[in-house]
Amino acid sequence: MRSRVWGGTAAVILGGLLATGCGGGEPATGGGAGGDAGKAAASDGHPVSVTDCTGAETTFSTAPEKIVTSNAAALELLLRLGAGDKVIGTGFPPGRGALPGALGEEAAKVKVLGRTVIPKEKLLGSGADLYLDTFGAMRMGGGMGDGPTEEEFTAAGIQHMYLKSTACAGRSKTAVTDLSAVEADITSLGRVTGTSPKAEELVAGMEKKVGAVRKAVGGIPEKERPTYFFFDYDAGTKQPTVVCNRQIAHAVITLAGARNVFADCDGDRKQVGWEDVIARNPDWIQLGVRNRGSAAANEKAFDEAEKWLTSDAATKGLKAVKEGKFLRIGSERTTIAGVRNADTVEEIARTLHPGKAGGL
User: Fold this and answer.
1) Percent of the chain residues topping a pLDDT of 70
2) Of the N and C termini of the chain, which has fewer Cβ atoms inside 10 Å?
3) Following DSSP, what letter does each residue of 212-235 receive, concatenated?
């Protein structure tokens, strides 16, 4: 394992994939949800060591003071941890209404360095001492431009670290079936930023919700669980893009007591044909609409997605469509690793299993 040690206001980059899952169920090194951040020793939690998807280790001697986030998912985690005042810029900013209440107001104050991927020169010249990256090995989104090399990050005084719940899908050899990687990232980031108490609170809240769902529906035999299709309406209707077994949505669906109809697809996402969806004939369909900025706009988008399914010749005969078994749950909280994954598990379980989970 190679080691990178940085001090003072040195910067860090956490790399990972937006809206992708990372090998669920893999044990975190160092014990507990804290994973590899469990090496904290000083009274303030530092130094703290973390590893990326390849095992490369980075050590923080002090908490970062100037953080740049690659996207809204990374930004949301820092805001929830109470480290929003350390964020000096972001890429892929959250749309209006994408984050609830005060979180949305705080996010709106963060400087936007890029509407999509942050340009390389702007990132290196940002003055950050930590870059929280959720694009991993995809090199900042492939066609959208090459990201800085590790040598360039070092020269700019920026540390690079991976959010493993979103960055490691390409390296995972097993399906993601729980939220342990998300919880490990929250704990690790809490230790890195000196917000461990809040991180522990967030993880405890997630575990409580998911634990209650497991108690309610965990005993349902696999063959008796309803089949479930996540319809990514905004990814296009000509050829559907489905969530596979490395995507965090697969864990959300599984924990809620359902069976992802594309659970046999290894990877995070895949384009298939409507004939593939028809052949699997799901019991339930989630209208995976991305946030439009207001409740009214979201409802309109859900209506549009449902209307498309009920009017299209290829899909109107699906069991879920004929029976009107739709779930109106936003895409982001299902497919982007974060605190709200636990809320989605709870909501799906209540809908699919009202007799067992209706009181949650």
Assistant:
1) 84
2) N
3) HHHHHHTTS-GGGSPEEEEE-GGG
Other Cβ atoms within 10 Å of 42 Cβ, number: 10
Asked if 258 and 352 touch (Cβ cutoff 8 Å), the reply is: yes
Q: Identify the burial level of 79 via C-beta atoms within 10 angstroms of its C-beta, where 0-12 means exposed, 13-18 middle and 19 or more buried.
A: buried
Find where tokens 């959720």 sit: 134
Contacts of 264 (CB under 8 A, 6+ apart): 245
- Predicted confidence (pLDDT) per residue in 72-111, tens digit: 889 999 999 999 999 999 999 988 888 888 999 999 999 9
Helix axes 196-217, 340-352, angle to 10 degrees: 10
Residue 128 contacts residue 107 (beta carbons within 8 Å): no
Residue 110 burial (10 A CB sphere; 0-12, 13-18, 19+): buried
Q: How far apart are CA 131 and CA 65, in angstroms?
A: 11
- The Cα–Cα gap between 228 and 50 comes to 36
How far apart (Å, rounded) are the C-alpha atoms in residues 43 and 18? 34
pLDDT tops 80 at residue 36: no
**pLDDT exceeds cutoff 80 at 24:** no
The whole-number average pLDDT for the span 179-206 is 95
> Is the Cβ–Cβ distance between 73 and 336 less than 8 Å?
yes
C-alpha–C-alpha distance, residues 166 and 30, integer Å: 20
pLDDT of residue 194: 95
